Backbone:
């Protein structure tokens, strides 16, 4: 099949492109760096010729909730309209587990807007709501460095390996559209502070860590079991320990 990956150079997108190529599909990446701006649609129509399905793994930079809503809405509308014109038969969106449970976070406002556009759009769709990736705690430590320490809030996660997210997105794209969503999670719950410490150590980073909600990139609305997937979640195989042992990349 010919499958386009919006955000095909990103953390997940490049793994999706690699997985598609391994499986013998024809992958087309759509990013600004490759001449396609999904806010304006510049460069998009020509890249969608002959495309059977689109996987959206974009992550546009946004400053606040209003900008997040506007940007994710625009990108989804532009992409879906171009897909409709090109006769694309399936739109697969990468979203986040527990999206409706977390209020007050700008990115989540954007992702809810994205899901609304996809569900209301004219292209048959599947929404894959993944939990946090195995490298997420180390990433948020590096986002909030205070007095030389990376601040990590004490989150309870059921994280997933990025490669398992990519293979699930590819499997979804070559299957019939669900006209709905499913949660996707890794096999075990984990403590974010422990994950960040072990990921940074595995990568040879010397960044010291502080466990705290104060100054952290995520607020107290992420506390407790709020980020855990629903009971019907599909469970991917790779544990955090497996991922660390394979190089933490
Ligand atoms: N991190 C997690 O734990 C987690 C968990 C669940 C779900 N997710 C979701 O996963 C998605 C992908 O995240 P990621 O970390 O893989 O993203 P990322 O590494 O930040 O990559 C973002 C991609 O989007 C492209 N992009 C951004 N703005 C664009 C535009 N206007 N037009 C075209 N392409 C654009 C970027 O390329 P250019 O800059 O060249 O345009 C890049 O290829 C996000 O939507 C996030 O909500 C993340």
Residues:
């Amino acid at each position: 099949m010919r499958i386009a990956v919006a955000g095909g150079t990103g953390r997940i997108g490049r793994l999706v492109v690699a997985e598609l190529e391994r499986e013998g599909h024809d992958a087309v990446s759509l990013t600004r760096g490759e001449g396609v701006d999904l806010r304006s649609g510049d460069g998009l129509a020509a890249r969608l010729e002959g495309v059977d399905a689109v996987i959206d793994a974009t992550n546009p930079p946004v400053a606040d909730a209003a900008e997040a809503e506007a940007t994710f809405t625009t990108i989804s509308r532009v992409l879906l309209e171009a897909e409709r014109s090109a006769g694309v038969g399936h739109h697969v969106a990468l979203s986040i587990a527990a999206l409706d449970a977390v209020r007050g976070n700008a990115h989540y406002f954007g992702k809810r807007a994205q899901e609304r556009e996809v569900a209301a759009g004219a292209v048959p769709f599947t929404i894959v709501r993944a939990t946090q990736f195995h490298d997420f705690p180390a990433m948020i430590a590096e986002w909030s460095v205070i007095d030389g320490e990376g601040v990590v809030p004490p989150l309870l996660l059921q994280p997933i390996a990025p490669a398992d997210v990519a293979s699930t997105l590819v499997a979804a794209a070559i299957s019939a559209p669900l006209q709905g969503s499913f949660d996707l999670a890794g096999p075990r719950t984990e403590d974010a502070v422990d994950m960040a410490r072990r990921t940074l150590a595995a990568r040879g980073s010397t960044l010291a860590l502080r466990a705290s909600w104060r100054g952290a990139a995520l607020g107290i609305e992420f506390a407790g079991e709020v980020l855990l997937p629903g009971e019907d979640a599909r469970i991917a195989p790779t544990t955090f320990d497996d991922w660390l042992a394979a190089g933490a990349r």
User: Anything to note?
Assistant: The helical segments are 13-22, 44-47, 65-86, 106-120, 136-143, 162-173, 192-202, 240-245. The mean pLDDT is 97. Residues 10 and 58 are 7 Å apart (CA to CA).
